[in-house]
Design a protein that fits this description.
The chain has 2 domains: 109 residues, Tumour Suppressor Smad4 (Sandwich), CATH 2.60.200; 162 residues, Alpha-Beta Plaits. 34% of the residues lie in helices and 28% in strands. A hairpin with a 6-residue loop joins strand 1 and strand 2. Bound molecules: guanosine-5'-triphosphate. Guanosine-5'-triphosphate binds next to strand 12, helix 3 and helix 4. Its cofactor is Mg(2+). It comes from Nitrococcus mobilis Nb-231. This is diguanylate cyclase.
C-alpha cells in the first residue's frame, strides 16, 4: 500500500471540507483550510498554522488527516494542547471542537457546507466572546440601547451590574494565563447562573462583566449582586489541581437615578446618553468598590 503524504490537490481532497477558524486570539476570524495530510501548528515560521504567541511552543502540535478524519497530537509542548478544555496528547477532532493552544482558540469545522458554517461562525464572532461563550460588548451595547429605549418609554425599572474580578493580573502572574482564562470562564458561568434568562449579560472587557436587568429595581439588583459576590468568594476555583482564590467587586446603578443625574427627560434622542449615564454611574461605583478594599458592592 502506498501512502501519499503532502499537499492534496484542491478539488480531489476529502479534507478540503475541513478547516480551523480562530475564535479567540490574534488573527480572529482567520480560516486555515486543512489541505495537507499533516499540518504543523506552532510559533515557528515553518509551521503551517503559525501563531506568534509566547505561550505557544515553536512546534506545538500537529494535525493529521486521513480519509476525512482528523487527529490532533501534542508535540510535548510547554503549555499543552486542549480540546474542549481537556488537556490531550492525541485526540480525534469532531465538528465544532474547540482547540486551545496558548491563548488562541481554534474551532474545527467540517461537513459538506463548510463555507456556510464558516460564515455562521464569523457571525457568531460578532456577538459572542470566543473565550467565555457569553455575549460580547458589541452585542451588549446594541441590546442595551433597545432595552433602555423601552424602559424610558414605558417608565419601567432597569438596573445594571458592572462586575470586575479583583487582582486579576495577579491571578495571571501567579497561576499562568491558562488559569486566568479558566477563571474568566468560571466567573462567566456563575454570573449566568445568577441572572434571569431575560437579563442581558456580557463580557464587557478583559476581566469585566456586565448584566442588565430589565424590570428590576436597584435593590433587587443589589440582592442578585450580593448573592453572586458571596458565591464566588466561597466557591473553590480549581485549575490543574490548584485552588485559586477569586473575588469580585461590583458597581450597581439603575436607570432612574442615571437619568436624574443626566438631568434630562423624555424623547428618543437621549437614549444614547441614558445608556452612557447608566454605565458611567455603575462604573464610578465599581471604582469605589475597588478603592474601599474590593470583594464588595457599591450601589449608591
Ligand atoms: N488570562 C487572561 N487574562 C486577560 C484576558 N484579558 C485581559 N487579561 C488580563 O487581565 C489583567 C487585568 O489587570 P488590571 O486591569 O491591572 O486589573 P486587576 O489586576 O484585576 O486589578 P484590580 O481590577 O484593580 O483589582 C491584565 O493583566 C490583562 O492582561 C484574557 O482573556 N485572559
Amino acid at each position: 500500500m502506498v501512502t501519499t503524504v503532502g499537499k492534496v490537490p484542491p478539488g480531489d481532497s476529502p479534507w478540503q471540507n475541513a478547516c480551523l477558524v480562530v475564535i479567540n486570539g490574534i488573527d480572529l476570524g482567520k480560516k486555515y483550510a486543512l489541505l495537507q495530510a499533516s499540518m504543523l501548528v506552532g510559533r515557528s515560521n515553518q509551521a503551517d498554522i503559525q501563531i506568534d504567541e509566547d505561550a505557544i511552543s515553536r512546534k506545538h502540535a500537529v494535525i493529521e488527516g486521513h480519509e476525512g478524519r482528523f487527529v490532533i497530537r501534542d508535540l510535548e509542548s510547554t503549555n499543552g494542547t486542549y480540546v474542549n478544555d481537556c488537556a490531550v496528547r492525541e485526540h480525534p477532532l469532531a465538528d465544532g471542537d474547540q482547540v486551545k493552544i496558548g491563548r488562541t482558540i481554534l474551532k474545527f469545522l467540517t461537513g459538506s457546507n463548510i463555507e456556510a458554517s464558516y460564515h455562521e461562525e464569523i457571525y457568531r464572532l460578532t456577538t459572542i466572546d470566543g473565550l467565555t461563550q457569553v455575549y460580547n460588548k458589541y452585542y451588549f451595547l446594541k441590546e442595551m440601547a433597545r432595552v433602555v429605549g423601552r424602559s424610558v418609554r414605558y417608565e419601567r425599572d432597569l438596573a445594571l451590574i458592572l462586575c470586575d474580578i479583583d487582582y486579576f493580573k495577579l491571578i495571571n502572574d501567579s497561576y499562568g494565563h491558562l488559569a486566568g482564562d479558566h477563571v474568566l470562564k468560571q466567573v462567566a458561568q456563575h454570573i449566568k447562573r445568577h441572572t434571569h434568562p431575560d437579563d442581558i449579560f456580557a463580557r464587557y472587557g478583559g476581566e469585566e462583566f456586565v448584566a442588565l436587568l430589565p424590570e428590576r429595581s436597584k435593590s433587587t439588583a443589589v440582592v442578585v449582586a450580593e448573592s453572586l459576590r458571596k458565591h464566588v468568594d466561597s466557591e473553590p476555583f480549581e485549575f490543574d489541581g490548584v485552588s485559586i482564590p477569586v473575588t469580585l467587586s461590583m458597581g450597581v446603578a439603575d436607570l432612574r437615578e442615571a437619568r436624574r443625574a443626566l438631568g434630562e427627560r423624555g424623547g428618543i434622542s437621549e437614549h444614547d446618553s441614558s445608556c452612557f449615564a447608566l454605565i458611567k454611574l455603575a462604573d464610578d461605583r465599581l471604582y469605589w468598590a475597588k478603592q474601599i478594599g474590593r470583594n464588595t458592592i457599591v450601589a449608591g
